[in-house]
């Protein structure tokens, strides 16, 4: 059969990620240090795992309501108020989703009509453009700059805003750049967006991981809250990536439509994970603090170390990545990553994997032990020395 | 007192001054000076590896001994505790509340060696009025470190 004629043209138009080749190289390599995968190196705290196990022992194995367990939604709403000063009605403004990813997909599909434009600041996580494409929308990539701390500035927004703009993705704190947005930044965006019907999709999966400042959400902004759909989850804050637990909050009319997508596509998020998530919300704040303190130490060590060995590295204010500038080496991001891996067995990800604007940068994740970070820095130092000859 | 520095070293004493400096926000020189001060003041007593001898060919027996003693006028339990902890075989000595007075943890190469120590040296001390020896059969966790080699999840490189 000729599957190419059968498959949707849209799905075929999606480009597979170019970094697969690095992972293939890594698989066969002994003694490599990977700073490539963006995932906490912590195991989910035991009390949370135990709550999941306990729910299985009690036989809680059925579907939950489509929106998720009421007890969990209540706890999430309480958590958002406690930690971020955000108020959402857990009955009408919140859905428990299969990771933040499902929430992002649903938000885009619930809002985008064919031909609608979605502004996506890049470099950023790779999922937004393909999801917009699959929703028959048009991804509009806005290249942020290191000089601006990789923020979405009002000038950059104005440059890409058109009458067709439906939605702006706000991937802050940002993977891979570590950029964050503050209240003043949102003040400026609010002014540009006043009198428009443009919505904001705020992907706040790294909200707990900000350093030296508290996370500020567009939903905290009095003018922007009504146009904000907030996505968050448990993966990064509670080291629960494999549990696939996320949630979405927003204005009731939008959540009401999204729940249909969730109901028909997913039914309900995994029940065991939801029970574990209740425990994470009730008694997990101390875990967040412990992990954040650990990440912060590694972050400072890696930033200092990279600057010392000769890779200029701005200070990332959030998430768990550094995004050093490799332009002084004269190599492209791709060349840098391939050679560093082959010559010194250290894996980092080319900035170009995160969209245009990533050329000249690489992403290194510091979710590894201090010992591995130290070894990686030594090897990167050797690599740079070899380059100089 | 820099408790953060002490906590970091307590959890992993292989951290380098560079790493400790980044993690505490101190300079490398400050870290070195603080650590030296703690060592001089015996706030840091030493650094050692936690070894699982069961994974080696070396035989090792550890016992926990409950010791009842008669405290000495003016010196309480200190003198007898000192007479016990001077023995090289003794790993730890703790003064306890409750049904007995001292917990003594000793390790030896064999059961016989431990029995010999208790019978000949410990029980015969004049202030010791009684002992109860419990042999440790298996260590699961010590100093926050788990002895069992745990299975790992199947490795998958995924782009996040």
Description:
In chain A, the strands form 3 sheets. Chain A has a 7-stranded mixed β-sheet, with helices on both faces. A 3-stranded antiparallel β-sheet of chain A has the order 9-12-11. Chain A has a two-stranded parallel ribbon with strand order 1-10. Chain A has 14 helices and 12 strands. The model of chain A has no long low-confidence stretch (mean pLDDT 96). With 389 residues, chain A is an alpha/beta fold. With 160 residues, chain B is an alpha+beta fold. Chain B has 5 helices and 6 strands. Chain B starts with a helix and ends in a 14-residue tail after the last strand. Chain B is 31% helix and 21% strand. Chain B folds into 2 domains: 3-40; 57-139, Lrp/AsnC effector binding domain/regulation of amino acid metabolism (RAM) domain (Alpha-Beta Plaits, 2-Layer Sandwich), CATH 3.30.70. The chains are: A alpha/beta (389), B alpha+beta (160). The interface between A and B is medium-sized, with 29 and 16 residues.
N-to-C SSE string of chain A, H for helix and E for strand: HHHEHHEHEHEHEHEEEHHHEHEEEH
Determine the CATH superfamily of the largest domain in chain A: Type I PLP-dependent aspartate aminotransferase-like (Major domain)
Helices of chain B, by number, come to 5
Number of E strands of chain A = 12
Contiguous low-pLDDT stretches of chain B (5 residues minimum) are none
In the CATH hierarchy, the architecture of the largest domain in chain B is 2-Layer Sandwich
How many helices of chain A? The count is 14
